[in-house]
């Protein structure tokens, strides 16, 4: 499965962190590489209620290869 980010909500927690085309490989500690996109979206919505989310993504570099990144997104906690 390919769980690439197709759009990012401007002003949302992922804005300026994630890029369209980033491929989500893990949500917190769950490997979602073989999950259907709908299941990943559902998982993101459930976890996002806590205000903390850790994603692992693969991002294409200028050479066209994909590199692995671990990205933590924190929001809603003041």
Task: Give the percentage of residues in beta strands.
Answer: 25-35%
Q: First CA to last CA: what distance?
A: 36 Å
Stretches where pLDDT falls below 50 for ≥5 residues? none
Class of secondary structure makeup = alpha+beta
Q: How are strands sequenced across the largest beta sheet? A: 2-1-3-4
SSE sequence, one letter per element: EEHEE
Which of globular, elongated, flat, extended, rod-shaped describes the shape?
A: globular
The pLDDT mean sits at 80
Q: Helix coverage percent of residues?
A: 10-25%
In DSSP terms (H or I, runs of 4 or more residues), the helix count works out at 1
What is the number of E strands? Answer: 4
Description:
A four-stranded antiparallel beta sheet has the order 2-1-3-4, with helices on one face. The protein contains one helix and four strands, in the order ββαββ. It is α+β, with helices and mostly antiparallel strands. It is 15% helix and 32% strand.
Please outline the helices and strands.
Layout: E1 23-27, E2 30-31, H1 37-48, E3 52-60, E4 66-74
Antiparallel strand pairs: 1-2, 1-3, 3-4
Can you give me a brief rundown of this structure?
With 78 residues, the protein is of the alpha+beta class. Helices cover 15% and strands 32% of the residues.
List keywords for this structure.
78 residues, alpha+beta, four-stranded antiparallel β-sheet, 4 strands
